[in-house]
Design a protein that fits this description.
The protein is mostly helical and 521 residues long. It has a single domain, classed as Amino acid/polyamine transporter I. The chain has a two-stranded antiparallel ribbon. The longest helix is centred in the first third of the chain and has 37 residues.
């Protein structure tokens, strides 16, 4: 028996011990597993589409200092998740971890937060990619309306269709997609960095990048440090998410107990380093501050939006190049996000948690979860329909409201098993990749960070988003619907749990190690 065959046999045995048969094709190595989370984090997506959140809420210091500080906390969360992943390398990932560490109720709620978050990731990244693609088309065709919501939605449908078709193929095909994506996310930022270094006539000072404060939120300066600045940290928290993909693809990864665990934290680390360099270069190129802040109303991209930096600091050819690289990177990101979401849907369905689970838990002869992929695509289409309508400022506020739950939903799902592992203490049976005693300080830090994040990101981002303000309106784009959506998920899934699911949702039947060995033999 070859080394590869022995590894596959050990992986199948481990999966059987966790209660599942090997149904998906296990053809990925450590690099490909790392590549999918690295692609979903995508510094070519989040750093570009959410830059304005930090610029408007804090300014350069929210970027130059906020990014590395928040990244360090996220890396701690990643370390905690990697340890649990090493013990439970399953496609269900974090919902399965919660189920095993805390019981079916914990698994149920974790799974639904994870599902909602992943749907939000795919929809928001694909829509952001469509937005960038539309802006890019506008650079090549002056007669094209790059800001028309219908045009953007049509591009969204095209991209979503492409990613759906891609994910109908088995994992040995998807391996090439994710590996190529990883290389693009390495090479693309290098090209952009060179453009921003050598293609910009003047750069901002070090003092501006590391000490300048900007407050476009509308809140008084007295609230800057303890209210406005933390809102800018959404840039980091939104960008560095989706790394649970390493877990969801663990059943398709060889030597998953170590390869997937390492892939998860490494995806966070390298994205944090690369993203910080890229963001610093964006900020050094931000020399036309009044234009970027849209002081005179002449910035068509809106205040703080990173495209305004490129359009004001670069020549047309360089501007087009940066936009093309970023758009393709986001296209890769959304495709990998669809892969992760489809595996989570497949895994949650095989434990009967999703209506119609008999359909979504099936795999084809090529070991691809085709039905689960189609379900994710339909859900992404449905949640994006509100993007067809904008308010007076042409902002599709209803769609943005739906995707606000992405960060909160995913991080709640991430931290529940971390809390349960912390609660279990030394009784936790670790896999080959372990934190040792470091969990005793890492787990509480991870839990506290997520609690603080969820509180801040549930608050209004602008005074006009506060009910009672004279300019308050439900469609003004400043209302934060995230807490309503979070509580909506809790209430809906809670009612379902107490009325029905608690009677049948138990997860897989866990055989003893000896029974699993006997069945495999």
């Amino acid at each position: 028996m070859s080394e590869t065959e022995r590894t596959l046999d050990a992986d199948s045995r481990k999966l059987k011990e966790l209660g599942y048969d090997q149904e998906l094709e296990r053809s990925w190595g450590q690099f490909t597993n790392f590549a999918i989370s690295f692609s979903i984090i995508s510094i070519l997506a989040g750093c570009f589409t959410t830059y304005g959140q930090a610029w408007n809420n804090g300014g350069p210091i929210a970027i130059s200092w906020g990014w590395p500080i928040i990244s360090a906390f996220i890396l701690i969360i990643g370390f905690c998740m990697s340890e649990i992943l090493s013990a439970f390398p399953t496609a269900g990932g974090i919902y399965y971890w919660s189920l095993r560490l805390g019981g079916p109720a914990w698994g149920w709620f974790t799974g639904w937060f994870n599902m909602v978050g992943l749907i939000g990731v795919v929809a928001s990244v694909d829509y952001g990619c469509a937005l960038f693609a539309s802006y890019t088309l506008g650079l090549f065709d002056s007669g094209y309306d790059a800001f028309d919501l219908t045009n953007i939605f049509i591009i969204y449908i095209i991209f979503l269709t492409c990613h759906t078709i891609l994910n109908l193929f088995p994992s040995h095909i998807l391996k090439y997609w994710n590996n190529t994506s990883a290389y693009w996310h390495i090479g693309g930022p290098i090209v952009i960095a060179l453009i921003l270094i050598f293609g910009v006539d003047n750069h901002q000072s070090i003092s501006f990048v590391f000490t300048e404060r900007i407050n476009n939120s509308g809140f008084a300066e007295g609230k800057y440090w303890f209210y406005v600045l933390p809102l800018g940290f959404l840039l980091t928290q939104y960008t560095i998410t989706g790394y649970d993909a390493c877990a969801h693809l663990s059943e398709e990864t060889r030597a998953a107990s170590t390869a997937a665990a390492k892939g998860l934290w490494k995806a966070i680390f390298y994205s944090a380093v690369g993203g910080w360099i890229l963001l610093l270069l964006f900020t050094f190129a931000a020399t036309h501050v009044d234009f970027i802040n849209n002081v005179n109303g002449d910035n068509p991209y809106g205040a703080g939006y990173v495209v305004g930096i490129f359009s004001s600091a670069l020549g047309l050819a360089a501007f087009k190049t940066v936009m093309i690289i970023a758009t393709i990177g986001q296209f890769f990101c959304a495709g990998s996000g669809m892969t992760s979401a489809s595996r989570m849907t497949f895994a949650f369905s095989r434990d009967r948690a999703i209506p119609g689970h008999q359909i979504w838990s099936k795999v084809t002869k090529s070991h691809a979860p085709v039905n689960a992929t189609l379900l994710v695509a339909v859900l992404c289409l449905i949640v994006a329909l509100p993007a067809l309508k904008g308010n007076d400022a042409n902002i599709p506020f209803a769609f943005y409201a739906l995707t606000q739950i992405t960060v909160i939903g995913l991080y709640i799902a991430y931290v529940i098993p971390v809390y349960l592992r912390w609660r279990m203490g030394d009784a936790f049976v670790a896999g080959p990749w372990t934190l040792g005693n470091k969990y005793k300080w890492m787990c509480p830090i991870a839990v506290l960070e997520v609690i603080i994040v969820c509180i801040y990101f549930s608050l209004p981002f602008s005074p006009i988003g506060i009910p009672g303000h004279e300019d308050f309106a439900l469609d003004n784009g400043a209302v934060n619907y995230a807490p309503i959506l979070v509580f909506g998920v809790i209430i809906a899934t809670g009612i379902w749990w107490f009325v029905s699911a608690k009677n049948w949702f138990t997860g897989p039947e866990i055989p003893s190690a000896s029974a699993a060995e006997a069945e495999l033999n």
